[in-house]
Amino acid sequence: MPSSCLDPFAWRPGPDQTVIVDASADSNDRARRERHETPLEQLDRNWKDLLQELRVTQTGVQLLTGFLLTLPFQARFTVLTDVQRTIYLFTVAASVVATVFLIGPVSLHRLLFRRHARRETVEIGHRLALVGLALLGVAMVGVVLLIFAVLLGDWAGLIAAAVIAALLVILWGLVPLRVRSVHSEPTEERSEAVTPRGQ
After folding, report:
1. Distance of CA 148 to CAs 60, 67, 143, 151, Å?
2. Beta bridge partners of 196
3. Using CA atoms, how far apart are residues 198 and 78, in angstroms rounded to an integer?
4. Would you give the end-to-end CA distance of the chain in angstroms?
5. What pTM was computed for the model?
6. Phi, psi values for residue 194, rounded to 5°
7. Which of 28, 45, 58, 160 is 20 to 30 Å apart from 18, CA to CA?
8. Whole-angstrom distance, CA of residue 19 vs CA of residue 181
9. Are 112 and 120 a contacting pair, CB within 8 Å?
10. 3-class DSSP assignment, residue 17
11. Cβ distance 193 to 21 under 8 Å?
C-alpha cells in the first residue's frame, strides 16, 4: 500500500477539483482558527472587547442620567405640564435602569472572579449590554422629546423624537443586523462540493 494512503495529509486537490470548506462551521470556530486562539483566549478577547464597548456607553448614560437628575432643580421645571412630567419620569427611569444594566457586567465579573466562569460572564455580559443599549436609546428619545416639546411645542417634540428614534433603529439595529447577515451567509467556496470543473 502506498505510504500516501496512510498519510491523511498527503492528498492534494487536482487541477480540475475545488476544495470543500465546511459551510456549517461555526463562526466562533472560524475566528479561532484564523486567529490561532484557544477557546479560552477567544473568551478573554471577547470580554476585553465588551469592556471597551461598555466604557463608551457607560460614560454616555452616566452623563445623560446626571443631566436628567439636575432638571427638577431648574427654574423652568415648574412650568412643565403633567404630560411633560410623565415623559420626564419615564425618561429618568429608562436612563437609570440603562445604567444598572450597563454596569451589571462589572458586578458579574467581580462576583464570578476566579470561578472559571468566563463563558458565562461573557454571555450574560453581552445580554446585559444589549438591554442597556436599548434602554439608553429609549432615554435619548425621551430627552429629545421633552426638550423640544418644552422649547418649541408638542409637535416639534414628537417630530424630533421620531427622527432620533429612526436614526437609532437604523444605526444601532438595522445596519449591524444587515452586516451580520452578510457575514453569516456561506460563501460560494464554503458551499461548493468537491466536483470536477465543468460538471
Report:
1. 20, 16, 9, 5
2. 17
3. 79
4. 31
5. 0.71
6. -80, 105
7. 28
8. 24
9. yes
10. strand
11. no
Q: What is the CATH number of domain 33-183?
A: 1.20.140
Q: What cell was used for 162?
A: 421620531
Place of cell 491523511: 8
Listed in sequence order, the residues at least 6 apart from 191 whose beta carbon sits closer than 8 Å to its beta carbon are: 23
| Residues in Cβ contact with 94 at an 8 Å cutoff, skipping those fewer than 6 apart | 135, 136, 138, 139, 142
SS3 content of the chain, % helix, strand, coil (to 5): 75, 0, 20
Residue 86, all three cell numbers: 410623565
Who contacts 125 (Cβ-Cβ below 8 Å, separation ≥6)?
47, 50, 54, 104, 105, 108, 109
**Which grid cell sits at 6?**
496512510
- Lookup: cell for 35: 486567529
Domain ranges of the chain: 33-183
The pLDDT tens digits of the residues spanning 148-191 come to 999 899 999 999 999 999 999 999 999 999 998 887 765 444 44
